[in-house]
UniProtKB/TrEMBL annotation:
Lineage of the organism: Eukaryota, Metazoa, Chordata, Craniata, Vertebrata
Protein name: L1 transposable element RRM domain-containing protein
Domain of life: Eukaryota
């Protein structure tokens, strides 16, 4: 009888312990699910904050490496002020300005973009509107005169819608959004630089194609 009671007691104790462990496991599962749900909500909030922050970003392409000097922010402010003819007291409210986080490209490769973060979204939108107006200015077509002269001399068909240039090469039609792009293409194809202006086309002429969201 004692042996039976002892065995029965041990079974009762084991069942109690199993029940207790099952209770702990259930509580732990609930706690884990709660933590995972909180983590999911936090991730959504972080993504939302990142999206809101990037909403105020503007990328500037084509700035040669090292052109910004010691201060990217001062360089960008000076560039925007001069190219868009903004007043000296205009406050850009730039929070950060830096090169894209990538390795410095080798000589001859495309430079890294400059990322500009504005405090206010409205400032970024205003600047993009001004850039677009500059891009739409039909006087920009005159920038292509030197290139057009060479293409005419070579009998190559081309068009200049707005401030773009569409060239009908033997290999197909290509559209260039700036004089710099067209200049590089002609140089790559071995055309002679027969015009002084063609030789001096620089990145300042392509500002209207620099800025993007």
């Amino acid at each position: 009888m004692r042996g039976r009671r002892s065995l029965s007691q041990r079974m009762d104790e084991a069942e109690a312990r199993v029940s207790q462990v099952e209770g702990w496991a259930e509580e732990a599962t609930e706690a884990l699910c709660t933590c995972l749900e909180q983590q999911r909500k936090l991730q959504i909030k972080v993504l939302d904050l990142e999206s809101r922050s990037r909403r105020n970003n503007m990328r500037v392409f084509g700035v040669p490496e090292g052109q910004e000097g010691d201060s990217v922010m001062q360089f960008i402010e000076k560039l925007l002020r001069s190219q868009l003819q903004l007043p000296e007291d205009f406050n850009f409210k730039i929070q950060r300005a830096h090169r894209a986080l990538a390795s410095k490209p080798p000589p001859g490769a495309s430079p890294r973009a400059v990322i500009v973060n504005f405090l206010e979204f409205s400032t970024k939108e205003m600047i993009l509107r001004e850039v677009w107006k500059k891009r739409q200015d039909t006087s920009g077509r005159r920038e292509y005169n030197a290139i057009k002269k060479i293409l005419k001399d070579k009998g190559i068909r081309f068009q200049t819608p707005f401030t773009n240039m569409r060239i009908h090469w033997e290999t197909g039609v290509r559209t260039y959004s700036s004089t710099r792009e067209a200049y590089k293409e002609l140089k790559r194809r071995g055309f002679q630089q027969e015009h002084d202006k063609f030789k001096t086309l620089g990145y300042s002429n392509t500002f209207h194609s620099w800025c993007k969201k």
